[in-house]
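Can you please make up a whole protein chain along with its backbone structure tokens because I've never seen that pairing?
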Amino acid sequence: MTARPQTVSSLELGANALPAMDVVFIEGYTGHTVIGIHDSELHQPQPIVVDVHAGRPHAKACDTDRIGDTIDYGAVRLRLQALYRDHRLTLLEAFAEAIAHLLIDEFGAAWVRVKVVKPRKFPDVEAVGVVIERTAPTPEAGPAASVLRLLRPEP
């Protein structure tokens, strides 16, 4: 089992700042899936729009010009298609977390931002959704680092 990605906010980084990132992104990926908590959402697929930003410190592909040295957004798109088809989640937060995990675990992202949107969920609202950011656990920190960070009071 892989370590859980760490929750991070761009505002929290300070001394723990990540190195400059090369960011691969997909914006506006739209698929249809069954997700939600209301009875009206649980029987028919509805549109869900996803934006993903996945970063690596100075991707080797900048120097090698090889797709194997970066995050292949075509492969990410295929994994998103499979997730839309196969998941059994009810909350957008859990759906976003699943996307963050796959970007970190399968594609080697060091940092991700995932936005998941239900467009026109309500007639008077353009969109509802969630945005999460995660960082990959550092090898030396291991899974316990996330717990310690939560327990340690901020200075």
